[in-house]
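Q: Sequence in, structure out?
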Amino acid sequence: MGNILTNVINNNKLNLVRNKLKYERGVRTMPFINTKTNVEISKGKEVIIKQKLGKAIELIPGKNEDGLMVSFEDRCSLYYKGESDKPIAFVEVMILGSSTKDAYQNLSEAITNILFEELSIAPEQIYIRYEETQYWAWNAKVI
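A: Exactly. Output:
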């Protein structure tokens, strides 16, 4: 009986460690992508873009969809070169920590391709802003 109890306790401890590691991997990545555009985004397109952004964020070393938060703001009042008659997008990518120019270049290409494929926004009509932060809070705790 003692061995069974010991095995149950050890399995529970192992599961706690696994869950903690999975939690920490997801939380520590903590990227946020906000897309503002002057075009309408249907719920179906939103889901497709969200899924593609979830894959694209992996171009930043150490980042993945497990901790990714995505926001869409469609039908915004945006102007580029004084005009708003063409599809336009402004994308903000915020991450905990830092990355490299090459990684940001790769992600920029991916985001631009996603918005062109899914919303017909021309690459020259897309701005992407990157922000790195040393501190990020989640669940009332600073990470």
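Residues 2-29 form the longest helix (28 residues).
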